[in-house]
Amino acid sequence: MVTKSAAGSSLLPWLGLALLIIVSDQLTKTLIIGSFELGDSRTVTSFFNLVRVHNAGAAFSFLADASGWQRWFFVGLGLVATVAIVWMLKSHGGQRLFSLALSLILGGALGNVIDRLLHGHVIDFLQFHWDWLAPIFPGGYFPSFNIADSAITVGAVLLILDELLRVRRS
């Protein structure tokens, strides 16, 4: 059991990690905006491109075609998630895997919230494509994503792993 003072004292490193995610996410997006026009694509390898895509929706462009209300919905959702995550980090900062997962999700969520506030959409730029994906995604192109999305995904996987390990211990 982590004491209240131990949990509180361990909040700063987790917030620092979230800040690192936000800064790297925003820096890479700024580089893409400065180097690519909307829709531009540069081949890097046979299975990876750098692109510039704007996503007004959520994962896999969910709600991207809505009339604009989704921008504020996702900003609000991100801010509510931020409050909940900071509270959980403050309460459970000594649980390393759990806190790592939450920090990655926090940094990713805020990185995308910043995009929505500044641009009205999220900037995506990483694009992977393989022929074996063709039955699922047009042309085998996995939907484009960014550093924030990657952090959220890794954080979610780590949360699942943390829960599986917790259940296994009990």
Describe this structure in words.
With 170 residues, the chain is mainly alpha-helical. The protein has one domain (4-169). Helix content is 60%, strand content 12%. It has five helices and three strands; from the N terminus they run ααββααβα. It has a three-stranded antiparallel sheet. Helix 2 packs parallel to helix 4, helix 3 (69-92) packs antiparallel against helix 4 and helix 4 packs antiparallel against helix 5 (147-169). The chain is globular. Residues 1-8 have low confidence and may be disordered.
Gist?
This protein is mostly helical. It has helices at residues 4-9, 11-35, 69-92, 96-119, 147-169, and strands at residues 41-45, 48-55, 122-128. A hairpin with a 2-residue loop joins β1 (41-45) and β2 (48-55).
Main attributes?
170 residues, 3-stranded antiparallel beta sheet, disordered N terminus, globular, mainly alpha, 12% strand, 5 helices
Q: What is the element string, with H for helices and E for strands?
A: HHEEHHEH
Q: Regions with pLDDT < 50 over 5+ consecutive residues? A: 1-8
Largest sheet: 3 strands, antiparallel
Relative helix content: 55-70%
Strand order of the largest sheet: 1-2-3
Q: Report the principal-axis shape.
A: globular
Rg, Å, rounded: 18 Å
Residues in β-strands, percent = 5-15%
